[in-house]
Specification:
Blueprint lengths: L2 E8 L2 E10 L2 E10 L6 E6 L10 H14 L2 E5 L14 H14 L3 H15 L5 E9 L3 H12 L5 E5 L9 H6 L6 E7 L7 H10 L5 E6 L8 H25 L1
Parallel strand pairs: 4-5, 4-6, 6-7, 7-8, 8-9
Antiparallel strand pairs: 1-2, 2-3, 3-5
Length: about 250
């Protein structure tokens, strides 16, 4: 059961901070939605990066694009050592380094897949969520946990992944799970990524089992998304999720 902790609204977007139980531990999460809802809407799950948390400014900005421009519902949970899962909030390079050190010892994939599955099981019970139009957005750490999650849950029909490589330390699980991913995937790569090799990112993309998949390379280093890369995220996921809605209406 989802327990609401705080609800606020601003410029047409309502933010609902929450928590839920997954395997006897509490998981902090958040839902963003249009303040006015008249019908079930597509749901976009978002996995944040290793230096952020569920309500970091970049996550709120991305959520606002999908909520205010397209009327979608967006949801996110904190990573394994991020945000409200800890007593003090740490972000930026310090948090990124802490996460990478944790990943080398224990990547926490099974725990995060279980948490996301539990969250989705609760979300699809909500009246205004269209359970037939579900998408995933998550690059960097959002791919490290998102790829195994969507490999295990075929309810996700479209995903945007990237900025992680199969040759990175303790990442064999991603290579093993990639062929199980069958949904449409847009994979983003940064050409001068300082953490993940070009070859490793292409290797992971090639391993994806999706019939429809696209790879796009952007200039620059491993930094927060902006500009063309951010526009592509919105364009791809909004179009694909709206197509799912249209196809569902045609069937009905």
């Amino acid at each position: 059961m989802i327990e609401l902790a705080h609800v606020s609204s601003d410029q047409g977007m309502t933010t609902q901070e929450l928590s839920f139980q997954s395997n006897e531990h509490t998981v902090p999460g958040v839902i963003w939605r249009p303040t006015k809802l008249n019908s079930p809407r597509p749901l976009l799950l978002m996995g944040h990066g290793g230096s952020h948390h569920k309500t970091a400014p970049i996550m709120v900005d991305i959520a606002r694009r999908f909520v205010c421009n397209h009327g979608f519902i967006v949801a996110c949970i904190d990573g394994p050592i991020h945000g409200a899962r800890r007593s003090e909030l740490i972000t930026g390079p310090q948090k990124q380094q802490e996460f990478l050190q944790m990943w080398e010892k224990d990547n926490c994939i099974d725990r995060m897949v279980s948490d996301w599955t539990s969250f989705l099981n609760e979300l699809v019970k909500i009246e205004f969520i269209n359970a037939q139009a579900l998408g995933w957005y998550g690059i960097s750490m959002g791919t490290a946990y998102g790829l195994p999650f969507i490999a295990a849950d075929d309810r996700i029909k479209v995903a945007l992944l990237g900025m992680w490589g199969g040759d990175f330390v303790n990442s064999q699980r991603l290579l093993d799970d990639a062929p199980k991913v069958k949904c449409q995937v847009f994979f983003q790569q940064k050409w001068d990524d300082q953490f993940f090799s070009r070859e490793g990112q292409i290797q992971l993309f090639e391993r994806l089992g999706s019939i429809e998949k696209w790879l796009k390379v952007y200039p620059g280093a491993h930094v927060s998304v902006s500009g063309e890369q951010l526009d592509d995220i919105e364009d791809f996921l909004s179009k694909k999720l709206k197509n799912l809605e249209t196809n569902q209406s045609a069937i009905n």
